[in-house]
């Protein structure tokens, strides 16, 4: 109770301070934290800094980020001295000092802030707010790089705990599964129960000891007899329940990253790999592991291609056929929908196998995730999702990625080294001409 009163008192004092004094006072406290040596006093100071930071509004928060960039950047004098010492005597000791001197001061600041109770969660939240600020402030990117560097170590696979989510999971966690689900909205508790408590459904999540009862990422799985091409039968309220002993396929139909502050920290690969191992052990007949994935950027890309007079993705015939997409409710009119099937699938094949962003990576974010994890592009699913959001984002298109355990490492290397899109022949045949970066396989 006393601690709670003290916390509220600090927050009240902070709110009464002028905005510029709030951020300035924080900077002084951070300098004191870096210069201090006592662990006990450091923990208390770190706690005070994070409590004061939590009261900042947008303006003072941006000022604090600016200070992290300038005041807590590299110690130039120390770096120059370390470089000179290394050039004079390239000893292990001088190399170690050069390594330490090359770190910006804010890295050590973050490490010391992490000592506070709840420090890890507070820093993850701080990075989430930094990402918001970076929508308009590219000059803060160096701070973000340092966060990713630290979080990649703090959230590596050795610290992650995989838990199966079922109806016996604490209600606080189940509520967060409903809240965080980003691919296919969970409408209510009954909907959640259908996804996690029936014999042919599984849900797994990664947790971290420093974020108690906060899922980092979770995956929802349907056990099926074949590779599904549409999401509606999987999410239907009334459907045939598959006996797990008769299932041959595990379909990952929703993968959700829960903590925006951990964007760029990759643990999806470890999640999929361990879930595959667990499902294989529990249901030995399951030998096929696929996704049923959305295509959230496809409609945006196609709109831009249709507007270009000299699009490499569309010829004149397909461009003309695709004008039917402008017809209201085109997907519910069989004749119009059928006229769009082939040209739209050809455009989708180009999108997945040729379209690149400014960094030379596949344009589609979901594709980057699965290809980077060693999956292959297995099938394009026409009208796989006819929900309002999916029609707006992807014209109803969905995609199957196949995780073939014998080829995951090879596929990953092909993507990592050459940015190669490993694709089944059923997809590559939709293109009018072969490409060097496409790696077709039997399928």
Write a concise keyword list for the protein shown above:
Butyryl-CoA Dehydrogenase, subunit A, domain 3; globular; 3 domains; disordered C terminus; alpha+beta; five-stranded mixed β-sheet; 10 strands; 443 residues; Aminopeptidase; three-stranded antiparallel β-sheet
From N to C, what is the helix and strand string?
Answer: HHHHHHHHHEHHEEHEHEEHHHHEHEHEHE
Helix % is: 40-55%
The span between the termini is 64 Å
Helix count equals 20
Radius of gyration: 26 Å
The average pLDDT score comes to: 89
Structural class, by secondary structure, is alpha+beta
Tell how many strands the DSSP assignment holds.
Answer: 10
Largest beta sheet: strand ordering: 1-2-3-4-5
Total domain units: 3
Q: What is the CATH C level class of the largest domain, in words?
A: Mainly Alpha
What overall geometry do the principal axes of the alpha carbons give?
globular
What fraction strand?
A: 5-15%
Main sheet record: 5 strands, mixed
Question: Which runs of at least 5 residues are low in confidence (pLDDT < 50)?
Answer: 1-17, 433-443
| CATH-assigned fold name of the largest domain | Butyryl-CoA Dehydrogenase, subunit A, domain 3
> What's the name of the CATH homologous superfamily of the largest domain?
Malonyl-CoA decarboxylase, oligemerization domain
- CATH architectural group of the largest domain: Up-down Bundle
């Amino acid at each position: 109770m006393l601690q709670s009163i003290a916390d509220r008192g600090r927050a009240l004092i902070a709110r009464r301070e002028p905005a510029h004094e709030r951020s300035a006072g924080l900077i002084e406290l951070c300098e004191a934290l870096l210069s201090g040596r006592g662990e006990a006093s450091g923990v208390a100071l770190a706690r005070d800094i994070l409590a004061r930071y939590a009261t900042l509004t947008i303006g003072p928060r941006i000022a604090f980020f600016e200070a992290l960039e300038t005041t807590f950047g590299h110690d130039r004098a120390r770096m120059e001295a370390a470089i000179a010492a290394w050039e004079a005597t390239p000893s292990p000791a001088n190399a170690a000092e050069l390594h330490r001197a090359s770190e910006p001061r804010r890295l050590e600041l973050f490490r010391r802030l992490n000592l506070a109770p709840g420090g890890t969660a507070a820093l993850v939240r701080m990075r989430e707010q930094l990402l918001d600020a970076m929508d308009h402030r590219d000059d803060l990117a160096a701070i973000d790089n340092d966060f990713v560097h630290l979080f990649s170590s703090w959230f590596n696979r050795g610290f992650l705990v995989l838990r199966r989510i079922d109806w016996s999971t604490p209600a606080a966690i189940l509520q967060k599964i409903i809240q965080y689900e980003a691919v296919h909205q969970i409408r209510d508790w009954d909907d959640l129960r259908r996804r996690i408590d029936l014999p042919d459904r599984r849900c797994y999540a990664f947790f971290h000891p420093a974020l108690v009862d906060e899922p980092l990422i979770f995956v929802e799985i349907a056990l099926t007899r074949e590779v599904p091409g549409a999401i509606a039968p999987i999410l239907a309220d009334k459907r045939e329940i598959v006996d797990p002993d008769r299932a041959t396929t595990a379909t990952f139909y929703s993968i959700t990253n829960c903590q925006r502050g951990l964007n760029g920290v990759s643990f999806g690969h470890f999640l999929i790999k361990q879930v595959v191992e667990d499902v294989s052990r529990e249901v030995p007949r399951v030998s096929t592991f696929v996704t049923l994935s959305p295509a959230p950027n496809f409609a945006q890309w196609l709109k831009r291609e249709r507007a270009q007079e000299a699009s490499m993705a569309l010829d004149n015939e397909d461009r003309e056929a695709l004008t039917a997409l402008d017809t209201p409710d085109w997907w519910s009119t069989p004749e119009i929908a059928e006229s769009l099937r082939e040209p739209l699938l050809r455009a989708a094949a180009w999108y997945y196998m040729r379209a690149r962003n400014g960094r030379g990576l596949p344009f589609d974010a979901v594709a980057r995730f699965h290809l980077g994890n060693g999956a292959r592009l297995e099938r394009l699913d026409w009208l796989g999702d006819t929900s309002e959001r999916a029609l707006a984002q992807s014209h109803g298109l969905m995609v199957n990625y196949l995780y073939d355990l014998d080829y995951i490492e090879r596929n990953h290397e092909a993507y990592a080294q050459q940015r190669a899109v490993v694709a089944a022949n059923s997809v590559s045949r939709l293109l009018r001409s072969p490409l060097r970066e496409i790696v077709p396989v039997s399928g």
